[in-house]
Design brief:
Elements (H helix, E strand, L loop, with lengths): L7 H11 L10 E2 L2 E2 L4 H9 L4 E5 L7 E5 L9 E5 L4 H9 L1 E7 L6 E12 L3 H25 L5 E5 L3 E6 L6
Antiparallel strand pairs: 1-2, 3-4, 3-6, 5-8, 6-7, 7-8, 7-9
Length: 174
């Protein structure tokens, strides 16, 4: 029996996606099929509860890339809460821009990457702090987390998506 033929170009693109590298424009097309998500798909994917990786420029070093809880509703900003004096906040203030990447953890992999300008605001305790803790930890652990962090100052970072990248390897049809 003859083994199936494998198009190694696609295998290379899969490995590039696993390493978090964004393929060159048009690289994920077979004929007219694109693996990029539609606007509705990418916004729904970003709106799901996932841990994001927030990246910000850091002079003299590689970018600071840290896991964050976030909230996003389609057509709005990405909201992240952090300490006002944290390294993350300091670098965000200096850069004025950031990016966020979220991904699925199981094959076939998907990811969405957004980048844009950031602004700082006072967080709404209910919407930005309590709701996010419950979203990521559940009711019981979320309440415990809120009790432990109640006296810690916080700042809301809003990232307005200006540029999107996405891939949905489920569209390979394999």
């Amino acid at each position: 029996m003859t083994p199936p033929r494998v198009d190694l170009r696609w295998l290379g693109l899969v490995f590039a996606g696993l390493r978090g590298l964004a393929p060159a424009p048009g690289a994920l097309q077979q004929g007219t099929m694109s693996y990029a998500m539609t606007r509705a798909e990418r916004e729904a994917f970003l709106a799901d509860t996932r841990v994001g990786i927030l990246a910000v420029q850091q002079a003299g070093h590689g970018p600071l890339a840290v896991p964050v809880w976030y909230h996003y509703a389609p057509g709005t900003v990405v909201r992240v809460v952090t300490g006002p004096d944290s390294e993350k906040a300091r670098l965000l203030r200096a850069a004025g821009r950031a990016s966020l990447t979220v991904q699925s953890e199981q094959a076939p992999y998907q990811y969405v990457h957004v980048e844009g300008r950031i602004t700082f605001r006072e967080p709404d305790p209910e919407r930005d702090i309590r709701a996010m803790a419950i979203r990521y930890l559940g009711e019981q652990m979320g309440q415990a987390y809120l009790a432990m962090t109640a006296d810690q100052p916080a700042v809301l970072v809003e990232l307005r998506p200006e540029r999107w990248r996405s891939v949905d390897y489920r569209k390979m049809g394999v």
